[in-house]
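quick one, 495 residues, struct below
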Amino acid sequence: MKKVADSDLTTPLLGTDAEHKGPSLAPLFCVAFLNTVSRIAAQTPAYSLLFHEVASAGGMQRHHISMTTGWLMAMRSLVELACPPLLARWSDRVGRRRSLGLCCLAYCVEYGLLSVLQSTLGFSLVFIAGGMLASHNVIEGSCIVDATSCPRSRSKAFGQLFAALGFGFILGPIIGGELSAIHSGAPFVAAMMLSICNLMCVLVVMPEYLPEKRRCSHQSGGSVLSTLHAFKHLVGQNHQLQWYTYASALSSMGISAFITVRTIWAHDTFGWHGSQIGRVVATYGVTVVFAHFVLLPLLLGIMRGREGLLAQLCLLVHTARFTAYGLAPHGGAVYTAVILSSAGSCSVPILQALCSQCVAETDQSLLSGGASALNSFTQVIGALIGSHVFAYSLGSKSSASAHLLLCAMLCGLAAICVGIARLQEKPVKVKRRSARPWIAQAEGMHGMDASLPSPTMRGGMLFRGRWAQSRDSTPRKVAAYSRPSNSDGGICALA
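---
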């Protein structure tokens, strides 16, 4: 984080103080925090435990429950991949408050229904349909772009949003876990109440960050298929980028394969209930926040110029973590593995930065959207593979750690892909390009999103190419972007 701030000092002043001043972002951070807490409280570990209870009451076997959970996670993930970009484009036309208010209302309805439904079919349909109006910070990020007029203020605002989300990642599992111990439907009632409070905050307190005069009356940008085709062409032009993309996809698949059945695995292996699972997930959330805010800048400073090697080491830490989970004799060993593997959470932003260095400045938005969509799709595959492997272990009475060994193998393959990319590095010094710190902070959100319970939360950047064009077209601002700085092209500025 410090590196980003240092690079901002080289940027010339952009306009007057009046130009910088905009609506307060404090209500937005409060809305993002409450949204995150309610979403995580309803998903970790509450959703898996309640579905397990409802399905068992209906006579479904344990291995069938695992497979069904994987299919539900995958189907919701596909809905979440397709809908947030469309929701963001709709908010470009009608405004941010109306869009966020609709999302909060949808959360209220979803959580309310999940708290009372006792049918496996109804439970599944509501869970899948709930992904249609899940913002996943896409609209919140657009609000920051609307409310700030220079890269420095945007970078600071995204950092603050990142911090709000981090606290939500820690608090959400604790609330969900502790309430699950009281009643299986209690976390959903609490999440519904938080969403109602959030809706009131949006309607009463939060300002409109996108004035009517700046709204788009037409749909901008290409279709999903054309965007993905352009991304495929972009990746095909650079062999090093190809291998970094493979590594990112494989690591996403491995993490998703574990997260999908994490609750069921902990319940069956260690006999943990909601409160115990919530505490270990909250501990993992603390390590994720610590890794992104403290450990990542420290490691990048130590490994400057050897970021590819650092990415390999972080992926190997993931490999060791999943292996340790599989060999853990008791729950205490899981806590130890979670804490000691904190550095593994740095792999996502480092891989994003390595990919970013391989393309021109004009292709950054295409790379961001395409890579996010690809990783989201591989997370869907990971959810299906992980749940089916774990189901096979339950059905055949074999080792319940088979899916963990699969996760370790996928992360190990990702490390090998990074190693191949490093062999293709050109020793010739290339011309450095300018970096946009505020876009780097926006990318950081997706790095943390990879650690969330839901397999897919990173597809929303697909149509956010207009971020790079919004309110940054004046001559002085263009000069600010093109001016070289000490951190141009550096991974520290992108992390």
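Residues 284 and 338 are 6 Å apart (CA to CA).
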